[in-house]
Amino acid sequence: VSHSTANAGDPETAREERTARAHLSRVVEPGDPGLSGEVAEHGWLGVARRLWSGHGPPRWQARHKALTSSTAGLLRAVAKLGIHVTVPGDATWPLGLDDLEAADLGPVACLWVRGRLPHANGAADLSRRGVAIVGARACSSYGQHVATELACHLTAQGWTVVSGAAYGIDAGAHRGALAGHPGAGDARVATVAVMACGVDRAYPTAHADLLDRIVADGGAVISELPPGSAPQRWRFLQRNRVIAALTATTVVVEAASRSGAAGTARAAMALSRHVGAVPGPVTAVTSVGCHELIRDGIATLVRDVGDVIELSSPMGQGLLDVGPVDGPQAVPGAGLLPQRVVACLSSIDGMSTAQVALVAGLDVGHVRSILLDLEHTATVARQDGGWIRVGRRGRLGTS
Amino acid sequence: VSHSTANAGDPETAREERTARAHLSRVVEPGDPGLSGEVAEHGWLGVARRLWSGHGPPRWQARHKALTSSTAGLLRAVAKLGIHVTVPGDATWPLGLDDLEAADLGPVACLWVRGRLPHANGAADLSRRGVAIVGARACSSYGQHVATELACHLTAQGWTVVSGAAYGIDAGAHRGALAGHPGAGDARVATVAVMACGVDRAYPTAHADLLDRIVADGGAVISELPPGSAPQRWRFLQRNRVIAALTATTVVVEAASRSGAAGTARAAMALSRHVGAVPGPVTAVTSVGCHELIRDGIATLVRDVGDVIELSSPMGQGLLDVGPVDGPQAVPGAGLLPQRVVACLSSIDGMSTAQVALVAGLDVGHVRSILLDLEHTATVARQDGGWIRVGRRGRLGTS
Questions:
Q1: Residue A142 is nearest to which of B279, B283, B291, comparing CB atoms?
Q2: Are A371 and A383 a contacting pair, CB within 8 Å?
Q3: ipTM of the complex
């Protein structure tokens, strides 16, 4: 967990600005059209101080007055849950967020983080090595397969997969990322879930286990909304601009015509990010949004991880990164295969051996043999004819 | 059948040039790199006269000497089979073929025609109202469905569908075109099959019935090769350039990476034609060529008939042409539905009711009721659990 200074000048001012930004994240709704102007005039600390002394837009004052805890107190309380705040100047502040203001998409005051973000030393920052994989909740098995495969191959090659933890494509992206990642011991961050609610909440609740696993395996669950925030409908739109800004490339794997994922793609274009879309059958409603993005010239048609890396890299560089990544050899070391199988499983919903094999990209016979071994060590169990993950891995970031 | 003059000046010269071109089509292999230069120097009639007097490239002289019939005799003989020749200046000479020479793709001496080509009065010429639908022989049921649907909707809106009569996408395109066309009574040409052999031969032989049906329903089977020519491997490549040159747009519906259909698309690009490609699942080998064409900027992603017409039309015009074309109302008049069902059937391979419904774009229950009616009138029959077409419709253009 990083707590480096937000301001290289004065440590005390930096601490105050961190608290000010965290406070404003509690008071100002993401995307509030007035924030940018107020900050330009008074600075983050100035805007917060004005609120503390009774100034600023009435909508902010109203929320400020309604708070029942101090922001310093909240920061201390959530630290016990493994939640911290990152602000500009921190080693883990994602540099891509700095582009939001210029694109007129509204600045992010701070990020609330559960888990670990890459250190923004340049090379590992999400704006260079992060790919957003987004798409429909009601996706097809084809879309689920493609999202999982892309994510698995991306993390196996050291990329970080960013998504929104929703059902469907998002979940496939996160699960694939976990399956492809060498594991919690690896310094690289497999996947980051960007929430439209506080990071202390699981939304959807059925993904509580997935979110815990993301944190446990060395990734992060993040939000610009403070802990306790509810996933209101309008917050998803704002959340999508954060996903687009964080990453080098947004890939849409299946989306309806005017969907949130298509909106993320348009935000990515506004931010001069790369945009890819995976085609599908023209007879499938699930691919309508992708085909529109390609036809409208917003997205490049991407077929596989090679296309995504080529799209995401400085010119020509990506081509060198793409080794033979098909099949099990994408995960370095055969000893990691059981871990990859476990990463595919949920602790709630049983999956058939064939489903696990599909997600893991392994042969069914191979997966069956691994599952039987894991059953002996009580790492997995059978439930309603499927397999679930069991074991004592803690919640909230303890691994 | 059109026999207008090849040369507006002198009818005798025109007749001689028609015979000269027909003769050269028997002697010079399509795409021969020497033809263009010889014609530029001597003219078509001059090149033929030189052969008759023992001059010209040895490869042509050898073939010229090996002929066992005069070209005038051949023209008379094939006329009895409903086959005629069309040359530049004829009302049915497709204007698009004139672009082959400028694109350095080799001129076409003449076309041998069984059936009826559109009169090239401008509006109806294939270069304005013709769309090539091409693709893999080993296509998926998805590709078959899309080719059939596109073709059906195109002919229902008065467009002519051009293809190569091969298995797979080609056959789907021709069958869909016949299904969507109002029938032989309509002046518009539903579909044109461009052969890589003589028009007197059926290749593949299993498509003899399909080719007959194309002619019987007011379409055409054409080739630049004279009757009797065999479908040699290299002739398919040359045939593909003719398909591309004839039409306003080439649409590829499923193709392997270095396939003939992808070659047709590249020829179409070289001829400054529009090129469309239908996307499919990235997991399907059958769509690899289409995705390449889109990524390489050669083809525009097309999803449906609206996209194809928009692509094929002078700017903006296509948008006005697209009415509500989904479902049965695309065929004007409910009395035409039995005809549409019959058009979907083969007289050799049985099709299930569901398959017929898919191709015809009608409800299964509706198709079943039509088929049962048609069985009473002995227009269709059951064979091996499927439906086939029966009846006394003659071959070679008699309807």
A1: B283
A2: no
A3: 0.72
